[in-house]
Structures are given as C-alpha cells and as structure tokens.
Amino acid sequence: MGRITLDKVTKSFGEVNVIPPLDLTINDGEFVVFVGPSGCGKSTLLRLIAGLEDVTSGQIRIDGEDATDMPPAKRGLAMVFQSYALYPHMSVRKNIAFPMKMAGMPQDEQNRRIEAAAKSLNLTDYLDRRPGQLSGGQRQRVAIGRAIVREPSAFLFDEPLSNLDAALRVNMRLEISELHNALKTTMIYVTHDQVEAMTMADKIVVLRAGNIEQVGSPLELYKTPRNEFVAGFIGSPKMNLIRGETAAQKGAATIGIRPEHLAASTEGGLWQGTVGVAEHLGSDTFLHVHDHGLGDEPLTVRVDGEMAVRHGDRIFLTPDESKLHRFDKQGLRI
Amino acid sequence: MATKASRAAARLMISPAVLLLLGWMIVPLSMTLYFSFLRYNLLMPGMEEFTGWTNYRFFLTDPAFTAALWNTLLLVGGVLLITTVGGTLLALLMDQPFWGQGIVRILVIAPFFVMPTVSALVWKNMFMNPVNGLFAHVAKFFGLQPYDFLAQAPLGSIIFIVSWQWLPFATLILLTALQSLDQEQLEAAEMDGAGALSRFFYIMLPHLARAITVVILIQTIFLLSVFAEILVTTNGGPGVASTNLTYLIYMQSLLQFDVGGGSAGGVVAIILANIVAIFLMRMIGKNLEA
Ligand SMILES: Nc1ncnc2c1ncn2[C@@H]1O[C@H](COP(=O)(O)OP(=O)(O)O)[C@@H](O)[C@H]1O
Ligand SMILES: [Mg+2]
Questions:
Q1: Which SUPFAM superfamilies would you find in this protein's record (chain A) (predicted)?
Q2: How near does any CA of chain B get to the CA of A202, in Å?
Q3: What's chain B's Rg over C-alpha atoms?
C-alpha cells in the first residue's frame, strides 16, 4: 500500500515561503513525476513527504494515517538521493543490508533479500566492493538496491539520474520503469528534465515556484496544457508561442503551435521565413526559422530528416489548425 | 613532474634543503650517541673517558627509569583518551546550530594559545592549590576537606592539565572533519531507520576515523615530550610519581650534571619513541590510506 495525500501543505524557510498551500493525492502503485525548473521546490516537497523536513502547516497522510509528525523511519518510505548517499566505508553488501540491520531482521532473510536485489540489479559481482570502486551507474543501482530490500510502501527518487552520462541515463530510465512494472509500488520521482517525466510517468505534476501548475498524464499535458508555462515546459523542442496581431486574429493573447504540428514546404504556405540553424538528428531535422514577421523569437519546425534545406533557404510554414493552442492574457488556456 | 629531466631538476633543487636538514639532525644525534658512551660529568671537567655501555646500564637499571616509562605511557595514553573522546563529544555539540556559535568556537580554541608553563601555573596556583585554590574554596563551601591535587594525585593532575591544553586541538580537527560529512548520508541513514546512536557509530565515527588518527599521531609526538607542565607544578614528584622520561633525562643531565647518563637516556627515549610510532602506525595507520 502506498497512497499518499497532501492536504494544504505549506513550507517556509524563515521568511521565505517555498511551498504555498498545496493539495495532492498520489494513488497506490502510481508512478508520479514532479517536474519543474530548478529551485521550484521539488526537492523540498519530496523531503516533506519523506519526513526529512517538517511541514509549516497542513497534513500529510500515508494510507489514510496522519504522518505529519512521524519520523522518517516510521513512514515506510525509501529514498534514492541525487548524490546516492552511499556509506563510503561499507561494502556494497553492507550498504544494502544497512536498513535491514537497523530493523533487526534475521541474518538469513537479509542474505536472501540481498542476493535477490543484487541479481535483479546486476550487482552480484560487486557485492564485496566499496562504493568508491564502482562506476556512477553501479552506485546508482546500489542506492536503488538499498531502497528495494526494505520493501517500502513508496519509493522517492530525487533527480537520481542527473549525475549519469546521457547513454546511461536512458538505460537507467528504462530500468527504473521496469522496476516499477515488476514491483507495482508507488514511486515519486523528481526531475527537472521533461523528457524523463514524459517517458516514465503515469502522472506528471508540473510545479512552478511551489505551485502546482497542472496534474495529468503525459499525453494530457502534451495535448491540453492548462497554461502557457506548462505548454512551454512539456514537449521537446519547446512549443512556439506567438503573440500580437497573428494571435489576436485567432481571438487569443498568445497562440502556441508545436514544432511537429507545423508543415514545412519550399513552394508555399501561410507563413514564410529564412532557415537559420538546422539541427539534423537523422530521423528528423529541426529548423530554426527567422524573419517570419510573427515576433522576435525564431520558430522551431520539425521536418523529415530527408528534406534538403540549408542555412539561408526560404521556407513556407503552415500550422495544423486543429493542434493550435490558444491562451488568454493571464496565460490560461481558452 | 613526469619527464626524466624534470625529475632530475626537482632532485637537484630539493637537495640543499634535504642536506641541511640531514646535517641538522645528524650532528646532534651523533654527538648524543658519542656522549652516551663517555663518562662525562660536568663536576669533573677534563676527566672524560670511554666507558662502553655503563651509562646505559645505570640508566636502564635505575628504578626511576621503570617508573618514568610507565608515567610517560600513562600520560600519553590518558591525554589521548580524554582529548579524542572529549574532542569528539565537543565537536558533535558544536556542530549543532546554536546562537553565538562563532564566539563559542573561538572560546573553545583559546586554551591552545596559552603557553604550557602559564596554563600549568594557573591551574596549580589558582585552581588546585589546597589553601587558596578555587577547588579548595568549593570543597570548603560544601564542608569538605580540600584535596591537595598535586600532592595526592600528581600524575592525574598533570594529565588533566595537559588534556585541557590539547582538547581544543582535537575538537577543532574533529569539528572540521564532522562538517565535511555529507548531510545526505545522515539523512539516508535516518530514513533507513538508524537512530541517533546508530548514526553516530555507523556513519559519523567511521567518517571521523582519519581525523582521529591524525589527532592521535600529532598529539603523541608532543605528549611524549611533555616537560614544562611537570617542571612548574610537581618537579616530577612526590618522589618520581610524576616524572616522565623527558623529565628524568633533564634531572640526570642538568640536576646531576651527568651528561653521559643523560645522553644515554636520550638515546633510550629516541628508541622508545620509535617503538611507540611503529606501534601506532601498525594499529591505526591504515586509516590514513585513501
Ligand atoms: N534549508 C533551506 N533553507 C532555506 N531555503 C531553502 C532550503 N532548502 C531549499 N530552500 C529554497 O527553497 C527553494 C526550493 O528549493 P528546492 O526544493 O531544492 O528546489 P528544486 O529541488 O526544485 O531545485 C529554493 O529557492 C531554495 O533556495
Ligand atoms: Mg532539487
């Protein structure tokens, strides 16, 4: 079981109010991702749930039980830290065993769980090494192993992949998703990387300055962003936002169109501009189009990787009207 | 510093310093060795003659030597125990956030800046004196018999005074080490269900191992040669109850004018210091490896 409810939770550090009143329900077995720019209070929120910080006001319930004043160890949650926080003087085996040792679990049960965790995380050959003798990805797995053996009611991850190189990150992303499928335990995952959020989450919570901007599945957020901030944050490359005359014609203060919803052509179209930088990814090419007369920001367009366009070429763009997002003066979706 | 040329240049440039230091050490050491085999008493000038191992035999069979040896070990061990345990506890305390932290930290290192003679005299005359000392006044206030610390427990009192001087050093080093401990490790341990005591023994103490080793090694070097505190408080007495090796050598060579005997004692002290050093490195040296 791992149903976590936040009820009007706030957090201030002295005068600074980091989390304004916030309500959130995380259902049992869900993979929830908190995403938002750096410094928006994601870690603080996670640490409040973990019990590493005290809430200033409000209530946290775990499985219906008031956990607001419970010490961290009693909450039955396991956390994987950004720095991994492995114990450097203990072997991998001792690291993984530590929470079980603290709980006073019988030795043979400890060994059984260590073997099982090591097997599923490919750590069997490294059990007698120190953390200092492992690679970043292996350390990450030890940290996960230390969390798994406790059989917690929910896992908390704080930017666990940000210290890994790009290839390893993709790998570990997959492994964590597979772990979730296998364990079906609630997981709360903090990241500033919207790609991680989109690929892993059942439910994404977009945060800005401690406020929840939108909660929803990845596709909901992609298709119907509630405001300009979410629209700009979710999706890669970013949505093009156009203001002024063009937007007013559509009855909005701002209109948004994703790079993949713009049709590009060399013959003709609604808008036109010159190609600036062309980013060739092989399957796709992203074009930055300047001098389009719609604003100062260049427009980003996704075109087929085969399309032969070069710096300085003239190009015509036509937006897919059905995929157009409209926002009012307050930035809210119309 | 990788190429042959740069290594050669480095050796060349460092050699004057090395040679100077070597000479600085070799000359007094060989003179001590030489004197230790002479019958050399300042009261009988011009009568020096070679006597072989006699000086060593006298020094090592002197009952004062065994007493001094034990006193030295007790002094070093006692002060090390008090300063490392006390230093760890004080460091833990000072690592907590509290009001006036900066001032308290400066106050805590203050004893380290007081000269040994001065601090020993202050303790002797203002605190431990059985008539005028503060402790005597306190005892009298409670209707107790004042305790004559330096006469009744001379070695214990000296251990206490020296510990008072070295506690700040230990505290400071251990505090710095404690502050370098990754807070997330402590939080991880907390989430793993470790209480305050478990966190101390499983996380903090192993992290402090290296700093504690440094404290022990550095202090041992200085504690083997404690002298001023003994000279100004007990003069090694009563009897030889608070005489350590350093003080015994001083008595031999300067109070009895026996340069030969004193030199022999010096050589013995050097050998003993090395035994202690080897013993320490065996015991805790591995903590210094990365
Ligand atoms: N212990 C603290 N004391 C004061 N301010 C803090 C503390 N921890 C975090 N903050 C502030 O709270 C805000 C949110 O921090 P954090 O939750 O770490 O952001 P994120 O993890 O989203 O990058 C930041 O502005 C940060 O400066
Ligand atoms: Mg953070």
A1: MOP-like (SSF50331), P-loop containing nucleoside triphosphate hydrolases (SSF52540)
A2: 26
A3: 24
Check if the beta carbon of residue A208 is closer than 8 Å to that of residue A40. Answer: yes
- Hey, where are the domains in chain B? 65-289
Per residue in B95-141, pLDDT tens?
888 888 888 888 888 888 888 889 888 888 888 887 888 888 888 88
- Cα-based distances in Å from A160 to A11, A51, A311, B218: 23, 19, 39, 41
Query: Which of the residues B184, B185, B191, B210 would you substitute to probe the A interface, choosing the one with the greatest number of A C-beta atoms within 10 Å?
Result: B191
Omega within 30 of 0 (cis) for the link into A237: yes
Whether residue B192 and residue A99 make contact (CB cut-off 8 A), yes or no, is yes
Tokens of B128: 């431990």
Give the A window 147-176 contacts with B, CB below 8 Å.
Answer: 150
Mean local confidence (pLDDT), A140-150:
92
Sign of CA dihedral A192, A197, A201, A203: positive
- B153–A contact, CB cutoff 8 A: no
A78 vs B: CB within 8 A = yes
Q: B65-289: which CATH topology?
A: MetI-like fold (1.10.3720)
Helix (H, G, I), strand (E, B) or coil at A239: coil
**Hey, are the CB atoms on A89 and B198 less than 8 Å from each other?**
no
Residues, chain B, total? 290
Task: State the nearest Cα–Cα gap between B198 and chain A, in angstroms.
Answer: 8
Which residues 285-314 of A have a C-beta within 8 angstroms of B? none
> Measured between alpha carbons, how far is A49 from A19 in angstroms, rounded to an integer?
13
pLDDT digits (tens, 9 = 90+) for A276-298: 998 988 889 999 998 888 888 89
How far is residue B271's CA from residue B285's CA, in Å, rounded to a whole number? 19
pLDDT, tens digit, 9 for 90 and up, residues A182-239: 999 999 999 999 999 999 999 999 999 889 999 999 999 999 999 999 999 998 889 9
Q: Locate the ligand 1 atom nearest the alpha carbon of residue A13 and give its number.
A: 4
Contact of A85 with chain B, judged by CB distance below 8 Å, is answered with: yes
Query: Do the beta carbons of residue A69 and residue A115 sit within 8 Å?
Result: no
Pocket of ligand 1 (CB under 6 A): A 13, 16, 18, 36, 38-44
ipTM of the complex: 0.84
